From TrEMBL:
Any one of the GO BP annotations: DNA transposition
Protein name according to UniProt: Putative transposase
Source taxon at top rank: Bacteria
Pfam hit, one: Y1_Tnp
Molecular function as annotated in GO: DNA binding; transposase activity
Source species: Streptosporangium subroseum
Domain Transposase IS200-like per the UniProt entry, residue ranges: 14-134
Amino acid sequence: MAEYEDIRTGRHCVFALHAHLVFVTKFRHEVFADTHLSRMEEIMRDVCADFETELAEFNGESNHVHLLVNFPPKIALSKLVNSLKGVSSRRMRQEFPELAHHYYRATKLWSVSYFAGSVDGAPLSVLRQYIDQQNRSA
């Protein structure tokens, strides 16, 4: 029954919607250390909870992060991404002022672009493993 572990129920539906998201830093600057990534994960989990979305996996490297989210059908993925990037950018820059020197005159942490891929079934376990194995060192 492992293939059914991520099935969720709503008021009028049963669903298993997963997306692999990748956000890269502005100018692909290598700015994140383990401390930054740990705090980033906490922030992303809080945002996901506000959207009734589960952050199933999180990891990253010095210039990007990977997220695996399990989201309900009522959530527009673009709105979730917008909130994840906006809130994390604002909070990270507030809590870690040293990040600002990487951006010259820019005030955003993330590039305007992002990757979103839908995943399901057997590839989901492979994707979890891939995200889990991403290096957290800067």
